[in-house]
Amino acid sequence: MSDPSSSVAVETPRPKAEATKRPRNSAKTKASILAAARVEFADRGFEGARVDAIAERAGANKRLLYHYFGNKEDLYRAVLLDAYQEIRRGERALSLDQYDPVQAMDRLVRFTFRHFLANPWFPRLLGTENIENARFLKTLPDIKALHSPLVGQIAAIIERGAASGAFRRDVDPVQLYISVAALGFFYVSNTATLSVIFERDLTSVAMVQEREAHAVQMVLDFLKTKPGA
Known about the structure:
This protein is mostly helical and 229 residues long. The protein folds into two domains: 46 residues, Arc Repressor Mutant, subunit A (Orthogonal Bundle); 154 residues, Tetracycline Repressor, domain 2 (Orthogonal Bundle). It has ten helices and no strands. The longest helix has 23 residues.
């Protein structure tokens, strides 16, 4: 008598369907390449930066990098533009027109200082572009449009402050912003050398807080000082 089990058909395993290719997330890949490029350019400068290193850091195929950004020069321009767009977005998010002039300027100074502090690559990247004599920045058509609203916003704060009697009126908004940026930029870009020279750890929380308060006070004291006083 035959074994009943021998009559049971054994199903042959079907070959697994070929795995479907995961759709490419172009936005995520571009963001990864930009993030990797900003570090490479900030650390090594334009001349020292290598596209191979950027692609490896981003975990992206080098051909994709060229596909999305063109050549090394175009990628560097994209990094520059992205850096300026990032700080401008942060400034817009402050909604400075909702605050009285003193509070508005306080917020702007603190934001600018903290932005440099939180993004030490940014001062290094700007240093690189200054070494290049701003030759790439000059080719970015959107850069003036990015800065104009900020200058107008600062001018409006000064005007509101002057109207209320809190600020002096004879202040150039461009000169003021350069001073605001310098108070944070110089501290962050020279922390290592200044810490050695003055034998203080300028990266400590206490020193950073002291410097931020000092920057705010300097700007507000200047704005409150009447001409000729």
